[in-house]
Design a protein that fits this description.
- α1 crosses α2 (about 45-55).
- The chain is built from three helices and nine strands, in the order βαβαβββαββββ.
- The two termini are about 10 Å apart.
- A six-stranded mixed sheet has the order 4-3-2-5-6-7.
- It has a single domain, classed as Rossmann fold.
- The chain has helices at about 10-30, 45-55, 105-115; strands spanning about 5-10, 35-40, 60-70, 75-85, 95-100, 120-130, 140-145, 150-155, 170-175.
- The longest helix is centred in the first third of the chain and has 18 residues, at about 10-30.
- The structure holds 1-O-pyrophosphono-5-O-phosphono-alpha-D-ribofuranose (PRP).
- 1-O-pyrophosphono-5-O-phosphono-alpha-D-ribofuranose binds near residues 42, 101, 103, 105 and 158.
Length: about 180
């Protein structure tokens, strides 16, 4: 059976409320500065769009793209840059905006890559932490939700490119009939 979005794990209302809190926290921690929020493509684009509107101050934005090298169908754990920032971040206060931390390999790579450019500060904001799956320790400054080890779709999360446009986060489920 084709997997489809099933049980709602994080509703639109819950997303809105928690993102408002995260935006306020980021605002407090960067008072008097203009931080640069760096969205990680593709998954974080919806979160990024809502988060920046919840930060009660001037911000600048940029995006970075990363991908894991695959060995067959499995991720090898090696991460590479597919699209770089559009501007230098030296001396800037940077917040990486990521949709999910799973093994932690992507964020570890991103933090190392951006630290090498000498930002004034580098913090990490993630919408969803799948902590059970962690392979490498990585410090997170702002966490929206901690979820169990289930495959999620919606609100930026995809399965084979689909379902990013759902307004909530749902579990991908295989039981139930296929749509006709
Ligand atoms: C997801 C997510 C993170 C990464 C986290 O990206 O957006 O970048 O995996 O996994 P990790 O902690 O195990 O490294 P994905 O490869 O699904 O790409 P996408 O954002 O374009 O959907």
């Amino acid at each position: 059976m084709t997997p489809r979005p099933g049980r709602v794990l994080i509703s639109e209302t819950e997303l809105r409320a928690r993102i408002a809190e995260l935006g306020a926290e980021i605002g407090r921690d960067h008072a008097g500065e203009v931080p640069v929020l760096v969205g990680v493509l593709q998954g974080a684009f919806l979160f990024m769009a809502d988060l920046i509107r919840a930060v009660p101050m001037d911000v600048t934005t940029d995006f970075i793209g990363v991908a894991s090298y695959s060995v067959g169908t499995r991720s090898s754990g090696q991460v590479r840059l597919t699209s770089d920032l559009s501007m230098p971040i030296e001396g800037r206060r940077v917040v990486i905006v990521e949709d999910i931390v799973d093994t932690g390999l992507t964020l570890t790579y991103l933090k190392r890559t951006l630290e090498a450019r000498h930002p004034a500060t580098l913090r990490v904001c993630v919408l969803v932490d799948k902590i059970e799956r962690r392979k490498v320790e990585v410090a997170l400054d702002y966490v929206g939700f901690t979820i169990p080890n289930v495959f999620v779709v919606g609100y930026g999360f995809d399965h084979q490119g689909l379902y990013r446009n759902l307004p909530h986060v749902a579990a991908l489920e295989t039981d139930g009939p296929d749509p006709v």
